[in-house]
């Protein structure tokens, strides 16, 4: 069971990924393909529905051409 | 199956957690207790044996009193 505090972290991360994806004019499909993860997973991550692993977080940062810490800093 | 690239990311993260923990003179047990995760999990994370989730990464950063991005930046 993910506690409330974690839900905030997971939702904030999802919003950040969405913000960065849109700022680069990428569709969820384009981001998913270049990150090598399923399209459905990008949607669920952006909506804060799933708790991504470090390797998924890294795959997303690589696909966005950003250092991983940029996914956590505005 | 975690690919090689991911293994590097996971190992680097583990080394970083270990480096930060030691710099704060914390034992694995103290870090685990304040992060609310099992001691065995801290050891396995530090050795790069498991692929931690975002909420575990956040729990570790909180326990180390650091913003989450500091776990990814030297």
Question: Any overview of this molecule?
Answer:
2 copies of one chain form a homodimer. The first copy, chain A, is mainly α. Chain A has a single domain, classed as Orthogonal Bundle (434 Repressor (Amino-terminal Domain)), CATH 1.10.260. Helices cover 62% and strands 0% of the residues of chain A. Chain A is built from 4 helices and no strands. In chain A, helix 2 packs across helix 3. At the A-B interface, helix 1 and helix 4 of A face helix 1 and helix 4 of B. Chains A, B: Keywords: DNA-binding, Transcription, Transcription regulation. Chains A, B: It holds the Pfam family HTH_3.
- Give the CATH class of chain A: Mainly Alpha
What fraction strand of chain A?
under 5%
Distance between the termini of chain A: 28 Å
- Return the structural class of chain A: mainly alpha
* Low-pLDDT stretches of chain A: none
Computed over alpha carbons, the radius of gyration of chain A is 11 Å
**Overall pLDDT confidence of chain A:** 93
The helix count of chain A comes to 4
**Within the CATH hierarchy, at the fold level, what is the topology of chain A?**
434 Repressor (Amino-terminal Domain)
The description of the largest β-sheet of chain A is: none
Annotation, overall tally of beta strands of chain A: 0
CATH architecture of chain A, please?
Orthogonal Bundle
Order of helices and strands of chain A: HHHH
Oligomeric state as shown? homodimer
Total of domains of chain A: 1
Helix content of chain A: 55-70%
Main interface by residue count: A-B, 19 and 19 residues
Q: What is the name of the CATH superfamily of chain A?
A: lambda repressor-like DNA-binding domains
- What's the overall geometry of chain A? globular
Pfam family, one (chains A, B): HTH_3
Organism (chains A, B): Pseudopedobacter beijingensis
Keywords (chains A, B): DNA-binding, Transcription, Transcription regulation
Protein name (chains A, B): Helix-turn-helix domain-containing protein
């Amino acid at each position: 069971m993910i506690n409330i505090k974690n839900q905030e972290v997971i939702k904030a991360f999802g919003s950040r990924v969405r913000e960065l994806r849109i700022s680069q004019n990428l569709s969820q499909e384009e981001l998913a393909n270049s990150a090598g993860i399923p399209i459905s997973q990008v949607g669920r991550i952006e909506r804060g529905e799933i708790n991504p692993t470090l390797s998924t977080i890294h795959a997303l940062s690589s696909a966005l051409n950003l250092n991983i810490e940029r996914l956590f800093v505005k």
